[in-house]
Amino acid sequence: MKEFDEEKILASLFLNLKGPKKKRDNWIEIANNCKQLVDYYGSMREVAEKLGVNYEIIRSILKLLTLPEEVKSLVKNNEILFDVGQRIARINDRETQTKVAKAVVGLPSHDAREVIQYAKKNPDADLEDFKRRMISSKNRMEKVHLTIIPLKEETYSFLKNIGAKDGLSPEKLIQRVVNQWIEKIQNER
């Protein structure tokens, strides 16, 4: 077992939590250092105070240590980002945590968040299939142009009333009318 060096651990944590954000130690090592200090000082609040950070930061870092070893390894190797690891730690079932972690490896945080939310709502779902569908839908970008059309109040009200009959906003109604008009012109050619 390593010798406990309070000053060295405090300095390392201070640098990782308060220093430049470019290069951090791995989050599992940071969590282990926090755990050593919590054990030494007796509370997360005391550690947070010593480091000049919010108690919630210490709590969320320590939550990483509750993850299964396989998931911790993914966090340690930066295959899963810190915030993603935290979200996975909020899943109660360890088997599901591992399944979700494997599915989100290498994804940006916002995509990983979608997979995690989906997994929580659909625990028996095929996450790889959902991930493929999610990524492919994001790859289908379409260039859209926005046009601002000044309308008199009476014209806008008229469009609003007509659109309401079909459950359309004035904007959607205008879009529909323009698309139908274009289609008509193209068919005439």
Could you report the average pLDDT, rounded to the nearest whole number? 89
Q: Find the structural class using helix and strand composition.
A: mainly alpha
How many structurally independent domains? 3
Count of discrete alpha- or pi-helical segments spanning 4 or more residues:
11
Order of helices and strands: HHHHHHHHHHH
Low-confidence stretches: none
User: What percentage of amino acids are in beta strands?
Assistant: under 5%
> Helicity range of the residues?
55-70%
Rg is 26 Å
The backbone outline, from C-alpha atoms, is elongated
Number of strand elements: 0
- Report how far the terminal alpha carbons are from each other: 82 Å
Largest sheet: none
Q: Could you describe the 3D structure shown?
A:
The chain is mostly helical and 189 residues long. It has three domains: 66 residues, no CATH class; 74 residues, no CATH class; 36 residues. The protein is 69% helix and 0% strand. Helix 7 runs antiparallel to helix 8. The longest helix is centred in the last third of the chain and has 19 residues. The model has no long low-confidence stretch (mean pLDDT 89).
Task: Please tag this protein with its features.
11 helices
Put the structure in a nutshell.
With 189 residues, this protein is mainly alpha-helical. The chain has eleven helices and no strands. The longest helix has 19 residues, at 170-188.
